[in-house]
Design a protein that fits this description.
The chain is mostly helical. It is built from 8 helices and no strands. The protein has one domain. The longest helix has 19 residues. The protein starts with a helix and ends with a helix.
Length: 133
């Protein structure tokens, strides 16, 4: 439940930026590729406890703030080696360009969806896929 809450909140954040629909969809796909592994590792009851009091209103958190709070929980609750490994992975992913995530995100798209993204200037590094299928 909280994983879907996280991603629905991210969509609301994107919508608030008044992006074109295709840009919103692209940023959502890339973020999902980048963060789902981490969010899904935090137990749901912990996510709910972390988010409590910050889900609505003036003290509500952005998704990035929520991610940072989950990382803080990990630091407090898990062995230091686990925290350091996760933090290192997050830093590594933060330094990767969108084309790194496009490779896996493209696999979940139909040819029509991929063509629409390419027309908008996205997924250009994955031109090979057109001939693979």
């Amino acid at each position: 439940m909280t994983l879907s809450l996280f991603w629905s909140r991210y969509l609301v954040e994107l919508h608030a930026e008044h992006l074109r629909k295709i840009d919103e969809e692209y940023r959502f796909l890339i973020a999902k590729e980048k963060w789902s592994w981490f969010v899904s590792k935090i137990p749901e009851d912990i996510q709910i406890r972390i988010l409590r009091g910050h889900n609505h209103g003036p003290s509500s958190w952005t998704c990035r703030m929520w991610l940072n709070q989950m990382l803080a929980w990990l630091k407090e609750d898990k062995p230091q080696a686990v925290y350091e490994a996760v933090a290192a992975r997050i830093r590594e992913l933060d330094n990767k360009g969108a084309d790194y995530f496009e490779k896996t995100a493209a696999r979940s798209l139909s040819q029509e969806e991929l063509a629409a993204f390419r027309k908008a200037g996205y997924f250009l590094c994955d031109q090979q896929r057109q001939t693979e299928y």
